[in-house]
Design a protein that fits this description.
Blueprint: E1 8-12, E2 16-24, E3 33-37, E4 43-47, E5 55-61, E6 66-71, E7 82-89, E8 99-103, H1 107-110, H2 114-120, E9 123-125, E10 131-133, E11 141-143, E12 152-154, E13 157-159, E14 162-165, E15 177-182, E16 186-194, E17 201-207, E18 213-220, E19 226-232, E20 237-243, E21 253-261, E22 279-281, E23 285-288, E24 294-298, E25 303-307, E26 311-313, E27 321-326, E28 332-336
Antiparallel strand pairs: 1-6, 2-5, 2-7, 3-4, 3-6, 8-21, 9-10, 10-15, 11-14, 12-13, 14-21, 15-20, 16-19, 16-21, 17-18, 17-20, 22-23, 23-26, 24-25, 24-27, 27-28
Protein name: Secretion system C-terminal sorting domain-containing protein
InterPro entries: Secre_tail
Length: 337
């Protein structure tokens, strides 16, 4: 499975046509190319390459926004590896906005009186909009390099120190997590290691209302810092990163850095605009007087309905927040069903 390492990954906004140019590392056993999504809700075989000339293997992904993983599984005894020459995909999510990086070796964090800050305020927010949420009785530790991890060198930058959370928290928890606002789609990277060898850490991402939930990193190691990335696809939101209490034991994590693109606040997550004059909503239906091409998206950005009908039936949608978008103009409207 891909979380053990050695995979190729990319983010798509929905349906995608994928092609892989590859050959087998060995003739016996031959290689195998597998694809899955972020939560491994499906695992499909793209192809079984031979050792000779590289060939193209294709796959059609049908679904909502996700990160896709392509990797050679260890499906039989021997070195069943694969040589990858090229990958193409449609509907790939572009990176939007400038990158903001929060380095926990910076003086702002290394000089922080964590216990005093969180006992008194529970939350510390940087000028660059990262909030560190405590629990009123400590919960965070500033960790210098130790005998397990001397430093993280990522893209030419050294990250020797970390902020440590010694145990994971429940999704509904209002303590011990990071949060920051984004203006829409955001490419997020983190450098982390597990607080424990067993259980290994798991990092989850959601918004302030827990209207979506996804895994950003799973099976992180204690003795090595690893980097993980994720693309949030959706409307403006405040995102939360938290170590998950997903198994018995102290499933905490050490954070070395967090970076995200498109960071910033907007006056209103979704504003009503000129086209709402002829798009009306009554809990169960949309009334589309001008028959414009509409998309209905859930809060994670996944498209759940496409229609240009005069009346769009919403009865089968679960309760929650949805975004109505005019495909041609890009105008949007938020509804609560």
């Amino acid at each position: 499975m891909p979380y053990g390492g050695r995979y190729l990954a990319f983010d798509v906004a929905g349906d995608s046509e994928i092609a892989v140019l590859a050959r087998s590392y060995n003739s016996s056993p031959a290689g195998k190319i597998v694809i899955t999504d972020h939560e491994e809700t499906f695992v499909d075989t793209i192809g079984r390459p031979t050792q000779g000339v590289a060939k193209w293997y294709t796959f059609s992904y049908f679904g909502g926004p996700t990160r896709l993983y392509i990797y050679p599984p260890r499906w039989t005894s021997g070195n069943c590896g694969v040589n990858f020459y090229a990958i193409t995909a449609t509907n790939v999510v572009p990176v939007e906005g400038e990158k903001t990086t929060w380095d926990f070796s910076d003086a702002e964090f290394s000089s922080m009186n964590l216990e005093g800050v969180f006992n008194n305020k529970q939350t510390y927010t940087t000028e660059s909009l990262l909030s560190v949420i405590g629990n009123g009785s400590y919960g965070w530790t500033y960790r210098a390099p130790d005998n397990r991890v001397a430093s993280l060198n990522y893209k030419g930058m050294q990250h020797p120190n970390s902020l440590e959370v010694p145990s994971g928290v429940a999704v509904s928890s209002d303590t011990r997590y990071f949060s920051f606002p984004v203006k829409g789609n955001s490419h997020i990277e983190v450098g982390v290691r597990s607080y424990n060898a067993t259980p290994m850490g798991k990092l989850i991402i959601t918004d302030n209302e827990n209207l979506f939930l996804d895994t950003l990193a799973k099976y992180t190691l204690r003795d090595y810092v690893t980097t993980h990335s994720y693309v949030y696809q959706g409307p403006p939101a405040t995102l939360k990163l938290m170590p998950s209490k997903w198994i018995d034991g102290n499933a905490g994590m050490n954070f070395y850095f967090i970076s995200a693109t498109n960071v910033g606040e907007v006056e209103s997550s979704i504003t009503e605009n000129k086209y709402t004059a002829f798009v009306k909503f009554n809990q169960n239906e949309l009334f589309n007087a001008n028959n414009v091409d509409l998309e209905v998206c859930d809060i994670s950005g996944q498209i759940v309905i496409r229609s240009n009908a005069a009346t769009v039936n919403l009865r089968n949608l679960t309760s929650g927040v949805y975004i109505i978008r005019d495909i041609k103009s890009g105008n949007t409207m938020k509804i609560l069903k």
